Amino acid sequence: PVRFSAEEAAAPGLPDVVLVLLRDLTQQRRLEQMRADFVANASHELRTPLASLSGFIETIQGPARNDTAARERFLVIMAEQAKRMSRLIDDLLSLSRIELNLHIRPDTRVDLVHVLREVMDALAPLALDRGIELRLAEQAAALPVQGDRDELIRVFENLVENALKYGGSERGVDVVCAEAAREDGSREAVVSVIDYGPGIAPEHLPRLTERFYRVDVPRSREQGGTGLGLAIVKHIVNRHRGRLSIASEAGKGTIFAVRMGLAQVLPESEKIDRSMS
Ligand code: ADP
């Protein structure tokens, strides 16, 4: 196999064709490495709850055979571990499905305001359970985008859930949706999920959307996280030709913002013409 680093491949004196070829090989090796890392990580993430399950089964069959109270306690933990494995498998499958369709842009018309209302309803119980006030500020009457409704719900559910789980504070969590102008004059929808929690240190920000990357592993596990949430969010936003940005300040909080081009709205005159014909 050819073993050249990017620097070596850029050495002077090599013809352009060779340089391009070497650069492609370096890129390919990097992709292969990433794939191998991903499989290793996924196996490790599945093996941890599996090992714990096996341990409890042995204990129930052995030392705790006649201890009903202990057995009941262990069964609760085992059910939680089984749920964790199934969440992980669901997330892995979602990720691979989205990746497979990455180049196909969803084409139904979806109103982001409706999507957000649905997300707020779905997460109201979690917010209530944590005693965190969850607010939605609708600064636009409608935000029509071209998209996949279920995937967009997934994006904002993930972001709001993270805000509640990792950024919850007595100041609550705000979701703000608005319309804004782009530099080229076109219009876009901007949805910001804002928390006033501990924030994320700057060195973590660039890696946050990597699969299995967590700032605080025990905390993520304790919250039932799989470490795939933000990777899924980023993939869905990319598929929708949108942009995800993260701003955070230690001790102040975090803002996750999603921007997506607004779907063309028919001019009033065309609507009237159509309804009359
Ligand atoms: P997980 O399944 O662990 O929640 P995610 O991909 O959704 O995985 O998030 C990755 C990590 O980013 C989390 O484990 C957490 O450490 C950090 N994180 C995400 N959102 C926030 C937030 N609003 N405030 C602080 N940390 C966050």
TrEMBL record:
<keyword id="KW-1003">Cell membrane</keyword>
<dbReference type="GO" id="GO:0005524">
    <property type="term" value="F:ATP binding"/>
</dbReference>
<keyword id="KW-0547">Nucleotide-binding</keyword>
<keyword id="KW-0597">Phosphoprotein</keyword>
<keyword id="KW-0472">Membrane</keyword>
<dbReference type="GO" id="GO:0000155">
    <property type="term" value="F:phosphorelay sensor kinase activity"/>
</dbReference>
<keyword id="KW-1133">Transmembrane helix</keyword>
<keyword id="KW-0902">Two-component regulatory system</keyword>
<feature type="domain" description="Histidine kinase">
    <location>
        <begin position="41"/>
        <end position="264"/>
    </location>
</feature>
<dbReference type="GO" id="GO:0016036">
    <property type="term" value="P:cellular response to phosphate starvation"/>
</dbReference>
<keyword id="KW-0067">ATP-binding</keyword>
<keyword id="KW-0808">Transferase</keyword>
<keyword id="KW-0418">Kinase</keyword>
<protein>
    <recommendedName>
        <fullName>histidine kinase</fullName>
        <ecNumber>2.7.13.3</ecNumber>
    </recommendedName>
</protein>
<dbReference type="GO" id="GO:0004721">
    <property type="term" value="F:phosphoprotein phosphatase activity"/>
</dbReference>
<dbReference type="GO" id="GO:0005886">
    <property type="term" value="C:plasma membrane"/>
</dbReference>
<keyword id="KW-0812">Transmembrane</keyword>
